[in-house]
Structures are given as C-alpha cells and as structure tokens.
C-alpha cells in the first residue's frame, strides 16, 4: 500500500507575474506545469495542470485534471477536503463505503476532509475536473493503494453505481 503525501509548493507551479500596482498575481498559462499522472498514483492516461499554489491567506490550491476513459486516481484522502468541478465529460467517484456516483459536466462535488475516495473518467468517455484542494499542515493529498478494476466497475460486493441526487 502506498502512503504518499504530496504538497504542491510555489516551486511546483509556473512562474508568477506580479502587478505591483494592484497587488495581484498572475500564473501565466505559458509557464504552467503540465505533466502526466504518475503510474504509481493513477491508472490509465491522466494529465495534470497545476493552476495555483496555496498562499499565506488562502490555504488551498487549484489544478485541472483530464482523465481518458477508464483512467482514475488511486485511493486517497485530502486532510482539508476538496471541491471537484466537472468541466467536461462523464466520470465516476467512489468512497470506501462502496458508493460510486456518476458525475458529469457542471456537477460540483465536495469531498470532506479525510474521506477515502477515488475519481476518474467513465468506462466510455473522458472527463475533466477543476480541483480546489485545501491544505492542512502542508499536506493536500495522501495517496493509498490503487483502485482495482472490480472497485472501479462497482463489482467489489459492496459497491453500486448511482446518479447524484437531483434537487
């Protein structure tokens, strides 16, 4: 079982441009770090783009993640929680409780602190997410073991695939 901790620091992000008049920071698209999801943390083809780091006042970071069909994260937790905003496609997210939800473009999912979960594309379609992840004690994610095909497909005995509840 992997127990990897990752905290993206300012050095993990592209160069910044500061406007001294307005005190704003621009993280330029042309300097953004884009990389393939490491095999020990992801199954399938995943691309990550680090958008912005946490800072002294805003203890959260942002990233954009694209999953090809059947691609997914390993089991993991976020010590300070995470918002997932589906920007395109269809995907899934599952918890250790066995519930797998189908998610689609426009859905916003809140994953509370320390909830073991995974997320990725559906078996037949890609998915892209905007991720806003809280940071606690310089940790934003702790990875565990990879999600098996049985867990991903909802065949692990306790899992079932469902829709997000409608209001």
What report would you give on this structure?
- The chain is mainly β.
- The chain has a domain at 43-146: Jelly Rolls (Sandwich).
- 3% of the residues lie in helices and 47% in strands.
- It is built from 1 helix and 16 strands.
- It has one helix spanning 149-153, and strands at residues 4-6, 16-19, 24-27, 34-36, 42-43, 46-52, 60-67, 72-73, 76-77, 82-95, 99-104, 108-111, 117-121, 127-134, 141-143, 160-163.
- Strands 4, 6, 7, 10, 11, 12, 13, 14 and 16 form a 9-stranded mixed beta sheet that branches. It has a 3-stranded antiparallel beta sheet with strand order 1-15-9, with no helix packed on it. Strands 2-3 form a two-stranded antiparallel ribbon.
- A hairpin with a 3-residue loop joins strand 10 and strand 11.
- The radius of gyration is 16 Å and the shape is globular.
Helix and strand layout, with pairings?
Elements: E1 4-6, E2 16-19, E3 24-27, E4 34-36, E5 42-43, E6 46-52, E7 60-67, E8 72-73, E9 76-77, E10 82-95, E11 99-104, E12 108-111, E13 117-121, E14 127-134, E15 141-143, H1 149-153, E16 160-163
Per DSSP E runs of 2 or more residues, the count of β-strands stands at 16
Q: Report the major sheet.
A: 9 strands, mixed
Mean pLDDT, as a whole number?
86
Distance between the termini: 38 Å
Low-pLDDT runs of 5+ residues are 7-11
Question: What is the structure about, briefly put?
Answer:
3% of the residues lie in helices and 47% in strands. With 167 residues, the chain is mainly beta.
Keywords, separated by commas or semicolons:
3-stranded antiparallel sheet, Jelly Rolls, 47% strand, 1 helix, mainly beta, 167 residues, 9-stranded mixed sheet, 3% helix
